Amino acid sequence: MQAKKTQTEKLRKLLIEKKFIPIPSCFDTLSAKLIEQANFDVTFMSGFAASASRIGSPDLGLMTFSEVFDQANNICNAIDIPMIVDGDTGYGNAMNVRRTVKECSKAGCAGILIEDQLAPKRCGHTPGKDVVGREEAFDRIRAANDMRNEGFDILIMARTDANHTHGLSEAIERAQKFYDLGADILFVEAPKNEKEMITICNEVPGNKIANIVEGGITPNLSMNELSDIGYKMAVYPLTVMSSAMKAMIRSLDLLMKDDDRSDLLLDFKDLRKRVGFEDYYEISSKYQTSKRN
Question: 277 and 224 in one domain?
């Protein structure tokens, strides 16, 4: 596994070399490893999915920074592809944002999302969210960029949810300012139709990311369609978790009924390999005291 410090540079290189980058979201180390094994270049630790997995609660600002950091740190240690962490609002004012960025950079995160929601934040595709004023929003991105410039290298994904409360024009103006403040990736959350998506891509500079929530507010366009509009990336925050939950619900239902569930199960040999048993045995064979028959 490469040193953690290379992950930000790997992500920068991908942004230069790739026309379009699909990003499935992970929520724990196992889901992150499966994403890597499926040959995706990048993953994103979804706040929605991580909150459900880590504390069994909805994405309503209930996870603490220490819980997010611990989850992100474990994921970064388990994979060798760049991981972008959902830093939510930065967990406070500009000074809190600085610490959040610093610690996530030290953990090996290649990028961090910072958004302009009012705390406690809400999932972007659910009701009840609001945004802070412009100056506070700008201070968050300014603080993140300052911390990066002070030696804690990390890509900054700046998100605005202003479209929901203030309209698309305000959201675009915020995103434009985020770009001026040094954000590497611009995230205008929850456009309601393809026309809004096109407007965002035409008026916001830099690398744009789409948030594709199956069943959410934003149209579920294909990757080619998103690329043609002008998006550089698309994050799929619930695809992995939702499909895993559906499979678990189904297998548990069959188990309760004592029905055959073999079609839902991985071959045990494949399961062991994907978890990492074979890699462990190969490495441990070099050490006499670690060998097992």
Answer: no
Tell me the CA distances in angstroms from 154 to 51, 89, 117, 146, one per residue in order.
23, 16, 21, 11
Report pLDDT for 207.
Answer: 99
C-alpha span between 161 and 171 (Å, rounded): 7
Nearest CA among 125, 81, 131, 118 for reference residue 219: 125
Q: Are residues 120 and 215 in the same domain?
A: yes
Residue 269 structural domain: 260-293
Q: What share of residues in the chain are helix, strand, coil (percent, to 5)?
A: 50, 15, 35
In this structure, the answer to whether residues 89 and 130 fall within a common structural domain is yes
What is the model's pTM?
A: 0.93
Average pLDDT over the chain, rounded to an integer: 94
Q: What is the mean pLDDT of residues 116-129?
A: 72
Place of tokens 């994103």: 44
Residue 222 lies in a domain: yes
Report yes or no on 255 lying in a domain: no
Rounded CA separation 111/189 (Å): 18
Determine, yes or no, domain membership for 250.
no
Give 206's contacts (C-beta < 8 A, 6+ positions apart).
Answer: 179, 183, 184, 185, 186
